[in-house]
Amino acid sequence: MHTSEFHSSSRRWPLSLSKAARIQAVLFPCVPYLLVLLEISYNKTGKGKSYLAKELGIMKQPDPFKWTNQIVMNCADIDIITASFVPEGGEEINATGFNYQNEDEKVTLCFPSILQKGSGSLKIDFVGELNDKMKGFYRSKYTTPSGENRYAAVTQFEATDARRAFPCWDEPAIKATFDITLIIPKDRIALSNMNVVDRKPYPEDHSLVEVKFATTPIMSTYLVAFVIGEYDFVESQSSDGVTVRVYTPVGKAEQGKFALEVATKTLPFYKDYFSVPYPLPKIDLIAIADFAAGAMENWGLVTYRETALLIDPKNSCASSRQWVALVVGHELAHQWFGNLVTMEWWTHLWLNEGFASWIEYLCVDHCFPEYDIWTQFVSADYTRALDLDALDNSHPIEVDVGHPSEVDEIFDAISYSKGASVIRMLHNYIGDEDFRKGMNAYLLKFQHKNASTEDLWECLEQASGKPIAAVMNSWTKQMGFPIIVVDQEQHGSDRVLKISQKKFCASGPRNDENCPNWMVPISICTSEDPSCTKMKVLLDQPETTVNITNIAPDHWIKINPGTVGFYRIQYSTTMLESLLPGIRDLTLLPVDRLGLQNDLFSLARAGMISTVEVLKVMEAFVNEPNYTVWSDLSCNLGVLSSLLSHTDFHEDIQEFIRDLFTPIGMKLGWDSKTGEGHLDALLRGLVLGKLGKAGHKATLEEARRRFKEHVEGKQTLPADLRSPVYLTVLKHGDSTTLDTMLKLHKQADMQEEKNRIERVLGAIPAPDLIQRVLNFALSEEVRPQDTVSVIGGVAGSSKQGRKAAWKFVKDNWEELHNRYQGGFLISRLIKLTADGFAIDKMAAEVKSFFESHHAPAAERTVQQCCENILLNAAWLKRDAEDIHQYLLQRKAPPV
Ligand code: BES
Ligand code: ZN
After folding, report:
1. What pLDDT does 24 receive?
2. Best substitution site from 336, 353, 401, 417 to test ligand 1's pocket, by max atoms within 8 Å of Cβ?
3. Phi and psi at residue 185, in whole multiples of 5°?
4. What is the separation of C-alpha 240 from the centre of its chain, rounded to a whole number of angstroms?
5. Beta-carbon contacts of residue 825 (< 8 Å; ≥ 6 apart)
6. Sheet of strand 568-571: strand arrangement
7. Is the C-beta atom of 51 inside 6 A of ligand 1?
8. Does 334 carry a binding-site annotation?
9. 679: part of which helix (H) or strand (E)?
10. Of 893, 850, 843, 895, which is closest to residue 868 (Cα–Cα)?
11. Distance (Å, rounded) from C-alpha 269 to C-alpha 272?
12. Whose CA is nearest to atom 8 of ligand 1?
């Protein structure tokens, strides 16, 4: 069945092989069909570092057939022992040479004679390494309830690491079915993409069992997975008949219940949304102790960090619950969008990740409407994407990639957050009904095959009758986004708007003759009904005029209600002044209050308005009740506070923060009240943490009191108060506080608690203690994937921390780079430690450090950091004095 199916799907295959790193199609074989049998002998103690495996690939030659005596495959860190080719009905030919091209992660198998035309099978025996690098087939350490250290063996193949587990054609468009067999110690369990079809004693060694899994559907190598270890699970059946299991560490099955509930609700939701059923008989979700990403969507066996899957009703906080729901929603969406229909090449990675990052919110909104998750999208993804995409060193959503390091590099906020944001804009432009129609057509047309961005546009275009490709190309093929400049005039009962676009640059306006243009869907609302779009236009040129009829002169006009369009807005002074009262009196929607503030903040950073103007707008938020609005405001104040830590009036901005957050802090108090919900819990944590960090006396005292009781075992802190309390006591703490915190860390049974502590340790002020925290980050106490957030926490906490963390990264570069093997965690580390400086010469230093210390997967991140440093420096030079004067003047007694 698969052979013909694959042929029809391979309309673009052989692939457009422009990049050296891709498999060259001129070399035999093109693999229209590949069957892999893996027999992995996993050593009894689980401590073995290598494994023996056999692989059998069944292949058919391409048409037109090229005569050759070579087979080229992807392969990395693998020793091939023997390889042979058996032509159908012919004699076995042994390969006589294995030519490893390590740089390209390939091997060429050389045969003594030309391989005969027709199909045949390729047999390979090889030894692989069970590595400690959290990629390929690797070891993950865990401690048994009795305190013994053991290892699980797990896989992480995306993007290009299946080739580290077995030789293969490791490209998303080279799909195949997989038959997997694992030979494992009999007291362990083995999981893979499919269900187990046979488990029997292994004849050669009775301490082992042979576990055979059902044949997978045709799929890409990066989605193959297997896990061997000791786990407990909880199980349920979704309403559409899929068996769902959540695997947890032994003894913690209860902690899988929340995710199980989300997953069983989510599967039918997607089935209904896509009008396509989940295609496998089962899905497992499993928590892996050592795990680089947040989670990975392996088909039928989704792997997660423990903190992205496990929830303990008593010890998990509201934000963890929300995170688990989002991650489960994200990975399950990939089961359709990504796994069933796969991107043709990594250039279209954004489609996978952008789409999943959008629909995870739709899913959580369905499961937990009380989370008001779409407003949180704007603060978490939309504004983050705008900030990054305003840099000269951003990149288009669709980007040419070849080498694995280039692929690693695009797992960034452009692919995820900008991708999700432009899909949200598109969904809004098309409307839900036609969007779903188009999605359904796309999934049906390309199921079990590969697709590109254009394919999706074509389906959506047909479903909606709108010019989707033309609109979307302007957002995905060119980097950046526009700033929409708006002015108005009242003509009788009409309002005439002049709307124009130009590229928004983080460094301020430029007179660029070749200014790009976007096709911008623009919605407009008025104060008559701020939640209702009064008019829609598609701005497809540099400027236009829009006439709004029947509007009273004293009514305001707002562009982009719902903050859906991916652009910033610059209003004329009168328009802005008319909008601002809507912040104070809350007549603007929360998402629009947030969007307005965020636009102004970024305009200030770009030097287009004064930062003092933004501080005045921020003061209008004193009555703000909404968590997400506060959260975004708090984030921007954090940025400003970090900037002003370079000045000698840092304390004045702390006072500003205290004044702004005190009324809401008083209103909320410390203890939750009956009837409060998820968002109240989040808001209380945010506000108390902010007040505590900024040195609000009463908050600090209460935090210390509660911390003491917590430590003494008198009164355990509720989970939602722990982060703010820990942060507050550390920020104003000494070596005893740090000792206590490290003790709590050691005692913590849940990874969530450990992470909670790790993230705030950097707040400790004394330089020698900062150093202790940095050393702790690289110690055995911290999981390798969490080191980054400990160091990042130090860098983000204070001026001293920033310097110390950067020095620490430089001093320990070898170890850090080696630890992450240049993966995306290294980019994250660089961003967290280098981004916050605000002196020109630091940009030069960062640049020169990475010229001599290569981090190929982080090249763009380094450039972005340098650009940010220069922007910070310019901002400080431009506005510091005015900010200082404003902060002094607002304290002065009125005359
Ligand atoms: N496919 C990714 C996992 C991944 C990330 C693999 C980077 C290789 C490199 C997965 O679907 C994902 O996006 N995970 C996110 C979590 C998600 C909720 C945004 C992650 O790991 O951060
Ligand atoms: Zn994803």
Report:
1. 42
2. 353
3. -60, 145
4. 29
5. 292, 785, 788
6. 543-548, 494-503, 482-491, 568-571
7. no
8. yes
9. helix 678-693
10. 843
11. 5
12. 158
Name residue 494's beta-bridge partners: 491
Q: Residue 357: CB within 6 Å of ligand 1?
A: yes
Contact 602, 563 (CB under 8 A): no
Statement: residue 251 has pLDDT above 70: yes
Question: Looking at ligand 1, which residue's alpha carbon is closest to its atom 16?
Answer: 294
Q: Residue 761 and residue 774: Cα distance in Å, rounded?
A: 9
pLDDT of 635: 98
Q: Could you tell me the distance, in angstroms and rounded to a whole number, from the CA of residue 354 to the centre of ligand 2?
A: 8
Atom of ligand 1 nearest to the CA of 327: 18
CB 289 within 8 A of CB 142: yes
151 lines ligand 1 (CB under 6 A): no
The H helix count followed by the E strand count for the chain is 30, 29
Q: Give the count of beta carbons closer than 10 Å to the beta carbon of residue 816.
A: 22
CB-based contact 293:156 (threshold 8 Å): yes
- Please check the confidence at residue 894 and state whether its pLDDT lies above 80: no
Q: What is the pLDDT of residue 42?
A: 64
Q: Which residues contact 620 (CB under 8 A, 6 or more apart)?
A: 580, 583, 584
> Is the model's pLDDT at 537 over the cut of 90?
yes
Distance 342 CA to ligand 2 centre (A): 12
Would you say 448 is a known binding-site residue?
A: no
Q: If you measure from the C-alpha of residue 383 to the centroid of ligand 1, how many angstroms do you get, rounded to a whole number?
A: 19
**Predicted pLDDT of residue 7:** 27
User: Which residue in 148, 290, 305, 295 sits closest to 819, CA to CA?
Assistant: 290
Span 673-699, pLDDT tens digits: 999 999 999 999 999 999 999 999 999
Tell me the CA–centroid distance for residue 386 and ligand 2, in Å: 20
Q: Is 326 in the pocket of ligand 1 (CB under 6 A)?
A: yes
Widest Cα–Cα separation across the chain: 101
> Any idea what DSSP says for residue 647?
S
283 DSSP 8-state letter: E
What whole-number distance in Å separates Cα of residue 398 and Cα of residue 419? 10
User: 357, 392 in Cβ contact below 8 A?
Assistant: no
Of the listed ligands, the closest to the CA of 294 is 1
Q: What was the pLDDT predicted at 227?
A: 96
Catalytic (active-site) positions:
331
> For a pLDDT cut of 70, what percent of the chain falls above it?
94
How far does residue 154's CA lie from ligand 1's centre (Å)? Answer: 16
Residue owning the nearest CA to atom 2 of ligand 1: 296
Tokens of 720: 């939602």
Joined together, the tokens standing for residue 569 give 């807005």
> Which residue CA neighbors atom 17 of ligand 1 most closely?
327
Question: Among the listed ranges 180-184, 283-287, 367-371, which one has the minimum average pLDDT value?
Answer: 180-184
Does 331 sit in the ligand 1 pocket, CB within 6 Å? yes
Asked whether the beta carbons of 760 and 693 are under 8 A apart, the reply is no
The pLDDT of residue 90? 87
Q: Compute, in angstroms, the gap from residue 817 CA to the centroid of ligand 1.
A: 20
Angle between helices 799-811 and 767-777 (to 10 degrees): 40
330 is in an annotated binding site: yes
* φ, ψ dihedrals at 245, nearest 5°: -125, 145
* Range in 181-185, 667-671, 753-757, 790-794 the model is least confident about: 181-185
Any idea which ligand is nearest the CA of 307?
A: 1
Strands of the 189-192 sheet, one edge to the other:
136-143, 149-156, 226-229, 189-192
Buried b or exposed e, range 255-276, using 16+ CB within 10 angstroms: bbbbbbbbbbbbbbbbbebbeb
Return the best residue to mutate from 331, 332, 384, 821 for the ligand 1 pocket (most ligand atoms within 8 A of CB).
Answer: 331
Our answer on whether the CB atom of 411 is closer than 6 Å to any ligand 1 atom is yes
Q: Tokens 């159908």 map to which residue?
A: 88
Q: Is pLDDT of 774 > 60?
A: yes
What was the pLDDT predicted at 144? 87
